[in-house]
């Protein structure tokens, strides 16, 4: 399929994991992708893998000036059709170890960064009365996953913010939805203590197996497509049925 032929997309967190998998999928279906990540070299590598006019941009999404610089690059393409906000910090911090500095470290990226990205992206989309915004939530908001209270709080904010933003932007034919993955076998998970949880998580899943980034991508691609024009303000859980609600 070439559902995104002629479309311009920006994907944050595109240097690895689910963000990279999404960027590659959109590119494979014809999109020109601005791959953004705090790891600029990784973002550029993703863009090269996509080819065409796609570019990689180093961006700390929690920094207002960095986001402005990113969208100055996006503006050069003349439009923005799809925005996927996958960048996030996923901590493993027991409650007794969370101080205010640690709380703010997570919120700065997971919520402040999301606001900055959505604000800049929607400003471009509104000029064309068209857009697809997909924000990455997490099934942890339903499970109350331990050792990440601040992360769970931030992702709960992602879901409710997305609902409100869908209302704000609906008049411009811009949809705003969330995907809420479960535990996924990404580089960041393998570098953390979360990698020890796959067995327990699999036990809770309706469909057995270990989630891979590519398992989440089809849901994102659908929500980013024209087919999803009548869907907005929703959260789609993509976790093999660990959470059933």
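Sequence proposed for the structure above (245 residues):
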């Amino acid at each position: 399929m070439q559902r995104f032929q002629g479309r311009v997309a920006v994907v944050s967190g595109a240097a690895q994991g689910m963000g990279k998998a999404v960027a590659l999928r959109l590119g494979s279906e014809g999109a020109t992708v601005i791959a953004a990540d705090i790891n600029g070299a990784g973002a550029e590598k993703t863009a090269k893998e996509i080819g065409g006019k796609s570019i990689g941009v180093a961006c700390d999404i929690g920094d207002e000036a960095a986001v402005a610089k990113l969208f100055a690059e996006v503006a050069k393409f003349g439009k923005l059709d799809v925005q996927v906000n996958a960048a996030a910090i996923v901590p493993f911090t027991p409650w007794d170890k969370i101080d205010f500095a640690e709380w703010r470290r997570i919120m700065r990226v997971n919520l402040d960064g999301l606001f900055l990205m959505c604000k800049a992206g929607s400003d471009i989309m509104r000029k064309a009365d068209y857009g697809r915004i997909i924000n990455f939530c997490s099934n942890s908001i339903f499970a109350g996953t331990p050792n990440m209270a601040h992360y769970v709080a931030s992702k709960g904010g992602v879901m409710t913010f997305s609902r409100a933003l869908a209302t704000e932007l609906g008049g411009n034919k811009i949809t705003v939805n969330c995907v809420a993955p479960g535990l996924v076998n990404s580089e960041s998970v393998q570098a953390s203590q979360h990698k020890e949880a796959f067995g327990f998580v699999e036990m809770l899943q309706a469909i057995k197996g270990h989630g891979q980034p590519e398992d989440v991508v089809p849901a994102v691609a659908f929500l980013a497509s024209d087919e999803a024009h009548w869907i907005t303000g929703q959260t789609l859980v993509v976790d093999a049925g660990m959470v059933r609600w």
